């Protein structure tokens, strides 16, 4: 007993001594730091030596908070003495100890992290800085270091092109911080990000962004004088606001803001910032055709600026708006801008490597200059016919492709990825134009593939990689559900940043999502880290893996001004140009409108035939086109406004009976988003346990949705197939879809569908609830075929360079191999006839594309007058894999009875024969 008490006493004595000694250490550190010296530099050296001496006396095996603080102070003073590498070593040691006391002293830990991140920034080690700041943010503190880290990370993400990650972070901080100084500071940084997004001329404008920026502007201007922020922050915000106003065409307000900024910084003696505004003023003058005033602005910037970015921008602007019709005169300006930014002194220009561009830190600026350079090389070729300019343009365009791909890959949000995909669109068209001029269809095909569904391809690859990690389905579904709930709230909060209730909801949802992802990372660390790039298929591989001797394909690239296509069979490649694209686009609008009409009068019918035939000739302009596709299976990879055109409904002649002169009468047609996407789709091996899942609510709790009177009949027809499960009425619920949809080879949904008028998100309805596109992403489908037997299931918001964000996209994302979907409101009677015939042909062993062709031609043969118009039969299109599916009917009771009787007769006959044989013996 005495021995035990003695041990307790010694332990308490040790703890008391340790506490005393550590308090003494803290006092000694404070005493050193409070010492003042008239010469600051000498004082810093003396303090460092004293701190190091103090460290030498410590027992370093005892990891106390005070020892951690000592390491942190030594690191800080190494930095002050310009020994950054030693500072980093000491700060890392401090962090190792301070991590042990995180719960009690998070702010002290975050201060050390902040100092280490700052030194990494000073050393240009941005990736290491980013990691430290991410760790700081992960601990979700409530101190100034967490706020600063959030802003710093948002700025870093913006600089590498991940604008929306930056905006999302700042919106989360804005939702959590109510102090006026913090709120206004965050709003100025948000405005800075929008200013960066819109400072370049080749980005499409979203009116909603303009409204968001204006709301932030009102709050900043109203409250700024009530803060302790530096006035420079206000004028930085004004400069960024001017960028946005300029992008949206309000040049008067932009000029007022730029002039205000220039005047302020001149009075402050900040030459570089005043010249930044002057550069922008020059750009406005250039756009207004005031070339002399603009040139004076640019020349003043070139003479007076010390920042190379400003000088380079001035050269690029001068070249782009140079008052000349000779493109070759402009090219040296772009080359000069690139060389200045890369600090190259060579007289001969060479296209910089991706590594050099990345190391420069000016990726976004260089992208603008490279695009300007490539465009003017092409313009020079058009002027003088020298093909050397096309080869120069091609070299630059490949570098642009690498750069855009890098920025897209390094972005973490879908919005940022779509931003960079869109930025690549016009340059990919330019690249295809160059390849057409050089007669290089193989390279043109590469750029056409890069122009289509890159994000979908990346997401499919990512989803397949996650499946390999065997994370439970319920967790994946919860991740997607929380993610898209958070994104929806984020979008609302961006539009209404002053709504306090929305602010609370958004902050709460973000915390819920973060906690879930933390728990997921602990259980499945590799799952959260997965990030997959994309591979672009070559034209030869597309031919080898997709088409046989009886097949062909055609792929397009199109915008409002230009269009090209490549037609391929197993033996030939034909590249062509679509002529007079502006007129073609106008015709296409009228034609698609005709296709959606249930009735056309006599004049409209004549016009429809002629217009449809003209569009067909524009899309297949090469010699012998009709003969090359007759009796063939043709795969179409559309683009832009062709994405919602049913090619099979194009008239191939203007004379004769209309029902016999559609493209569908001579060819089976299917579609792909791109060959690269299809290659990813094929790689997933589906193993469905059952054959057919069909769901038809036919009556809906939402009374705005009309009752589908023919659904019961349609479902009864499907009930005859083996291994089929039919859910109708109140059984056709969203919950049952979630529960069973992963088990079937064919999924058939007979219901209503549409697009949310506010969010533009596609949905499909079950008996009680709607299922949105976002909710589809978390399902692991085993389906070889999904039939979306509803209206507008192939419709959705168009994203430039990515395609239509439709329900079909969601099913491809989650593993489905092919989707049969509709382009417009389906006539229920005609739609059911075509789907019934489609199943019959599948049962006969036909491929999916052949079955659909035969179903449609059967309908056309059996109907006449207005019922042969595309509205009735052409809405359903097949995208993806076209291979056949084995389906067979269940045996009816009559068939079973017949077989039993037949078997009985056979057995009776055999018994009779056997009995007679033995009797004879």
Description:
The chain has 921 residues and is α/β, with parallel strands linked by helices. Helix content is 62%, strand content 9%. The protein is built from 38 helices and 16 strands. The strands form 4 sheets. Strands 7-6-8-12-15-16 form a 6-stranded mixed beta sheet, with helices on both faces. A 5-stranded mixed beta sheet has the order 3-2-1-4-5. A hairpin with a 4-residue loop joins β1 and β2. The longest helix is centred in the N-terminal third of the chain and has 33 residues, at 2-34. The model is unreliable at 9-20 (pLDDT under 50).
Rg: 34 Å
Helix fraction bin: 55-70%
How are the strands of the largest sheet arranged? 7-6-8-12-15-16
Q: What is the typical, i.e. mean, pLDDT?
A: 87
Tally of helical segments: 38
Low-confidence stretches: 9-20
| β-strand amount | 5-15%
Q: Distance between the terminal alpha carbons, to the nearest Å?
A: 107 Å
Shape: globular
